[in-house]
Design a protein that fits this description.
With about 160 residues, the protein is mostly beta strands. Helices cover about 15% and strands about 45% of the residues. This is Flavin reductase.
Length: about 160
Amino acid sequence: MDDRLFRNAMSKFATGVTVIATETNGNVHGMTANAFMSVSLDPKLVVISIGERANILSKIKDSGIFTVNILADDQKELSMNFAGQLKETKEVSFARLNDMPVIDGAVAQMACEVSATHVEGDHTLFIGRVKDVYLEEKDPLLFFNGKYRSMIAVEEPIS
């Protein structure tokens, strides 16, 4: 199977957009990702998938922590910044949740401790035990078919 065909098929799955962050030696590192999902309610677990060439991979391994920041629909530039899509990288200030770096204004922030790792193919899956959560009432930034999107409410038919 052609790699492009597989990538095109995966782009047909609409996802939210997250910034994964971690901290080592007082320095915060982040990257844009959409490979994130919940795993368990009891205990509260999530999983992120990080490519073997991503700079943040060794940082999460070293720190043993990460945060998941589900971006709001007005945070496209932040996503592009952490994806390396801007001509000039912009400095980002981070807030704290459970003493871990998070992005202000995100729809959801989750502070996680790594509870397990699993290498599969060219990615490492980090299972994180969620230590704290903060929510804001905003619409999420979405990604579909290689483009950023926003939600549009659809009226439910009255029965």
